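ok, trying the design again with the full structure, not the truncated one.
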């Protein structure tokens, strides 16, 4: 083969390989697609060749992002076999808090009709993480300012929170008044218990003297009780008296062991511009074990949202048995009316700075057998949530959450209010004392 032929063959092979590389790297496809145009005020980092997902499933790609009349227009190439209904909601989603962006389509209803190729639709305004955090901090500042400001300048959340705190204070005041009414009787009871304990100590002392006389067989009592049968009965009586005295001291110690915390959560879901509230009690009877009882997603089931579909189940209950260790807080039971568990990691529990020390990474899982249809959408995967939180103040916590990772993956801002209520803790202690006393009396 001549040199010219070899050079020509080399050039042809190079052109073939170059064509293959351009074909692969240029993301060419033989799949038939149609074009939809989506207009946004801000695409928030959405890039060319980003995936298009319908209900979480990839159905196409973004082939261009253009600026037309001060608006961002996204060119979406969608598989020809996938119809998009006219009332579908277009938004910009994210694979995580700082993950890559994609064009999200929440499918509408078939009765609305199918969007024809080349249609232009309006997308829901995306909220960036920076704007969301700034808005959350602004909302917190407004909340804190509203709590201390004039009543006519307070927002709805501040008024509701103030009303809730006022109701809690009223409740604790009533409990304090009730405890004040019962305190004299309890004082007399405790004084009587002290008298009983003193008498038991006196009886034990005398019993020791009697046992010494029995063992020595001196005096009339020793002579009368010197036989083995009588001696064993006296020893059993002394042992029973000692066990009774120990039980009395243990019951009195339970009154001061209880710790009770009020917990209020306000969560704002940016995709549908809606907020939800949770409230509950966290009860520590002793040590690191606790019980959590409360309500979640409190709201009116008849409320509609004009910014998107709200898939959350309203007015549910929480009931957990948990253990709060140094680096891990673990609870299992009922979460939002479904069986599940919650794990909270405290990676900086030994840090010197209190704000860093308060950082928590939280994971929740519940409703593992979920299989239902909500607003025309099928849900058949477990409900999984992840969150992160820190506390700039011992009463206030700030954080971010991603709800329902396996299905709709919606981002939320999160504000938590938590404080200890010693009056209710004292009441639980007294209930425990009464229950223990009743149990003791039932054995007679």
């Amino acid at each position: 083969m001549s040199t010219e032929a070899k050079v020509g063959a080399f050039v042809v092979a190079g052109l073939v390989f170059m064509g293959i590389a351009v074909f692969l790297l240029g993301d060419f496809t033989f799949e038939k697609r149609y074009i939809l145009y989506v207009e946004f005020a801000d695409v928030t980092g959405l890039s060319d060749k980003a995936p298009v997902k319908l209900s979480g499933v990839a159905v196409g790609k973004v082939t261009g992002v253009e600026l037309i009349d001060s608006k961002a227009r996204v060119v979406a190439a969608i598989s020809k076999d996938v119809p998009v209904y006219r009332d579908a909601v277009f938004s910009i989603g994210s694979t995580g808090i700082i993950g890559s962006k994609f064009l999200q389509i929440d499918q509408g209803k078939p009765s609305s009709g199918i969007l024809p190729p080349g249609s232009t639709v309006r997308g829901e305004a995306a909220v960036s993480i920076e704007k969301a955090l700034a808005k959350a901090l602004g909302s917190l500042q407004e909340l804190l300012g509203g709590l201390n400001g004039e009543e006519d300048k307070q927002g709805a959340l501040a008024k509701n929170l103030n009303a809730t705190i006022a109701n809690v204070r009223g409740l604790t005041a009533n409990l304090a008044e009730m405890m004040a009414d019962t305190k004299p009787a309890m004082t007399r009871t405790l004084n009587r218990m002290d008298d009983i304990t003193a008498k038991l100590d006196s009886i034990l002392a005398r019993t020791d003297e009697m046992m010494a006389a029995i063992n020595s067989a001196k005096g009339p009592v020793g002579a009368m009780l010197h036989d083995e049968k009588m001696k064993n009965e006296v020893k059993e009586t002394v042992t029973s008296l000692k066990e009774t005295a120990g039980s009395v001291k243990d019951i009195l110690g339970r009154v001061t062991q209880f710790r009770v915390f009020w917990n209020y959560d306000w969560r704002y879901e940016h995709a549908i511009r809606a907020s939800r509230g949770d409230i509950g009690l966290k009860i520590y009877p002793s040590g690191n074990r606790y019980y959590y009882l409360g309500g979640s997603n409190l709201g009116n089931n008849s409320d509609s949202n004009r910014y998107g579909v709200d898939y959350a189940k309203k007015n549910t209950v929480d009931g957990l048995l948990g253990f709060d260790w140094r680096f891990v807080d673990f609870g299992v039971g009922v979460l939002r009316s479904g069986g599940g568990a919650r794990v909270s990691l405290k990676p900086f529990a030994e840090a010197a700075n209190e704000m860093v020390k308060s950082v928590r990474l939280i994971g929740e899982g519940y409703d593992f057998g979920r299989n239902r249809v909500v607003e025309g959408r099928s849900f058949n995967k477990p409900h999984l949530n992840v969150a992160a939180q820190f506390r700039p103040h011992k009463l206030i916590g700030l954080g971010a959450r991603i709800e329902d990772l396996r299905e709709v993956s919606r981002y939320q801002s999160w504000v938590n209010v938590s404080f200890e209520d010693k009056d209710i803790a004292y009441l639980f202690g007294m209930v425990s004392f009464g229950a223990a006393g009743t149990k003791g009396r039932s054995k007679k």
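Keeping the full-length input from now on. The chain has three domains: 29-126, 159-254, 259-427.
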